[in-house]
Design a protein that fits this description.
Layout: E1 6-10, H1 13-26, H2 40-52, H3 54-82, E2 90-96, E3 103-104, E4 111-115, H4 120-159, H5 162-167, H6 182-195, H7 198-212
Parallel strand pairs: 1-2, 2-4
Antiparallel strand pairs: 3-4
Helix pairs in contact: 3-4, 4-7, 6-7
The structure holds zinc ion.
């Protein structure tokens, strides 16, 4: 895609409530530590209070101002990693009061969430992580899915984001950790450093997953 891509930072209470209800129903870990031990109603009141604060509604603007100096370089690095143009021109990043930050890869309207409870450097890390996922889906997803199926593709698409730690070392202050995929992440990083060819790393990782990673129901 010609020209540079952009992230629009937004707050939409509807989107945050959707995430809240998802978290309450499916995903207990996504409740911020601040809300642990509170009843659903108490959490709701807290969220309503947070939403009503000016600083919260202004927060997307503050993030935008901090993100601005990085944006061009950020997308250039992503392009270089994938050796492909950025798949979308516009991304929406919605603020959420949860720690769960889902992403929705849609062809014309890709969006993801960033957590109010994260620091700005850590929000930048979320951005890198989610955009990396979307690039992966845009250029490699179908191929990888056909080779190893949905579950293993998801596993790979999480593990391979370790490349962010390496390539954004000087741009962001924080690194993302993922203890559950430590071994394969070590493998991926090692392969990546050899000649920084993503397709090659993906092929090797697929072999690694087939031979070394056990999934539920497999022996
Ligand atoms: Zn992820």
């Amino acid at each position: 895609m010609k020209g540079s891509s952009r992230i629009n930072f937004l707050f939409d209470p509807k989107k945050d409530w959707e995430n809240f209800f998802y978290v309450i129903k499916n995903d207990k870990w996504g409740i911020p530590p601040e809300f642990k031990g509170l009843s659903e109603n108490e959490i709701k009141k807290n969220i309503q209070f947070i939403h009503s604060q000016n600083f919260f509604r202004d927060y997307p603007k503050i993030i935008r101002e901090n993100w601005e100096p990085f944006e061009k370089r950020f997308f250039k690095i992503i392009e270089k990693i994938f050796n492909k143009p950025i798949a979308h021109r516009k991304y929406k990043a919605y603020l959420t009061t949860m720690t769960r930050c889902p992403y929705f890869y849609k062809k014309n309207d890709p969006w993801f969430m960033i957590s109010f409870y994260n620091s700005i450097p850590s929000i930048f890390m979320t951005i890198a992580h989610e955009i990396f996922h979307m690039q992966f889906h845009a250029y490699l997803g179908e191929k990888v899915r056909n080779m190893i199926g949905e579950l293993k593709m998801d596993y790979l698409s999480e593990a391979i984001t370790v490349i962010i730690n390496e390539e954004f070392r000087d741009l962001f202050l924080s690194v993302q950790r993922d203890p559950s995929r430590e071994k394969i992440r070590g493998f991926i990083l090692n392969e990546w450093k050899k000649n920084k060819n993503l397709e090659e790393v993906v092929q090797k990782s697929i072999k690694y997953i087939k031979n070394k990673v056990k999934f539920h129901g497999e022996h």
